[in-house]
Amino acid sequence: MNEYLAPITMPTAGERIAERIVTAIALGEFVPDQRLPTERDLAAMLEVSRTTVREALQRLAAAGYVTTKRGRAGGTFVRTGAGPDADDMIRRTLVPAWSDLTEILDFRRLIEQTIARTAAERRDLRDIGAIRKAVGEYERATDRDASHLADHAVHQAIARACHNTRLVELSASIRREVSLGFDAEPYTPQVRQRAMVQHPLLAEAVIDGDADRAAELAAEHFSLTEAMLTELHARIRVRSGGNPDADGEGQ
Question: Are 138 and 154 in the same domain?
Answer without folding.
Answer: yes
